[in-house]
Amino acid sequence: MRGSPARGALAAVAFFVAPLLGLVAAFASPEADRILPISGYTTEKGRALAKAHAPALSEMNAYIYHCVPWVETQKESIGFFKPKHVSVDDRYLAIRIFIEQDPSPAFAALDQNNRAAAMFSRYVGFLLRQMTKSPDILADPAVGGFITILEWRKQEGGSQGRPVHETIAVYVPKPLARDYLSGKATIDAVAQGARVMGWDGERALGQLNLPAWEDNFVTTFKLPNYKLDPAAKCS
Amino acid sequence: MRIKGLRLLLVGGVLVAATGCATGEEWQIWRSNGAHFASGDHMFFSVRNREGTKPTVTRKDITLARDQGWWGKPITVNQDQILER
């Protein structure tokens, strides 16, 4: 029995569209919930910054998602937040990432400060560059600085079957960030000039004094077998 | 039917991502990129497809693998101890 022309046309469309649907399913968009929604801000200053720089935040979210797939941006962690230690409503552009890596005896053998220094060296400079890709952010006088929060799984220990994360929060005032980005300051100068707080699980370690060095791992490492979304821009 | 097929595709990708182990070549790639510590292979480095096929992993595969939550809910600092909204 011969099919109708309409049925034949449908079959032809399905033939060409089905692979595309598979492609759409295989790739993915960065989750929008990584960015703090406007309704989540408690002050008008925060809301105004979020509205003014929404495209830049989305672009940063997409870049991290597609181009640095071994890190996970935490929910509602991208936005203009007030540092906890500041009393006035200073707004810093912030991001919090979880860095995924398998156990390594060499990394575990480092003491806590050196593990933090290694992570600082690898990710803080990179994130500062991503956060300031839009020149409008650096030029906006309402932006006081930048906060990068890095966390990774602590290899030894664990509690009641739950993994423990080590975390550092790095508060970089805008003048210091600008000096680093323009080449006037080294990443070690950023580490010395920024406020760096540490946590072991939920336990606060207080302010840390870390050494830092340039580490280009993030920009040079290619995840083996990783198929980049054709729409992603990683250059 | 098509949805079922897509689900099978995604689940298959996750299963593939959860098996296998890193080759010497992958270790070499990790070490040759300025690593200051040999942090091992990420869980999704170990993607192995069937013999004779080109192994691939997409960002969606990685998200799905993470969503399995096989490490459990971590003990970590709350965001509100670091910054305010």
Q: Look at the helices and sheets of chain B and give the structural class.
A: mainly alpha
Domains counted in the coordinates of chain A: how many?
Answer: 1
Tally the helices of chain A: what do you get? 9
Count of β-strands of chain A: 7
Determine the strand fraction of chain A and express it as a percent band: 15-25%
Number of strands of chain B: 1
Terminus-to-terminus distance of chain A: 54 Å
User: What's the SSE pattern of chain A?
Assistant: HHHEEEHHHEEHHEEH
Silhouette of chain B: elongated
Sheet bearing the most strands of chain B, described?
A: none
Structural class category of chain A: alpha+beta
Q: Could you report the average pLDDT of chain A, rounded to the nearest whole number?
A: 88
Q: Calculate Rg of chain B over CA atoms.
A: 17 Å
In percent terms, what proportion of residues of chain B is strand?
A: under 5%
Biggest interface, which chains? A-B, 69 and 48 residues
Tell me the series of helices and strands of chain B, N- to C-terminal.
HHHE
Any overview of this molecule?
The complex is a heterodimer of chains A (235) and B (85). Chain A has helices spanning 5-26, 44-52, 54-67, 105-109, 112-131, 135-139, 174-181, 187-193, 217-220; strands at 71-73, 79-83, 91-99, 143-153, 165-173, 195-200, 203-207. Chain A is of the alpha+beta class and 235 residues long. In chain A, a hairpin with a 2-residue loop joins strand 6 (195-200) and strand 7 (203-207). Chain B is an all-alpha fold. Chain B has one domain. Chain B is built from 3 helices and 1 strand; from the N terminus they run αααβ. Chain B starts with a helix and ends with a strand. At the A-B interface, helix 1, strand 2, strand 3, helix 5 and strand 4 of A face helix 1, helix 2, helix 3 and strand 1 of B. Strand 2 of chain A pairs antiparallel with strand 1 of chain B.
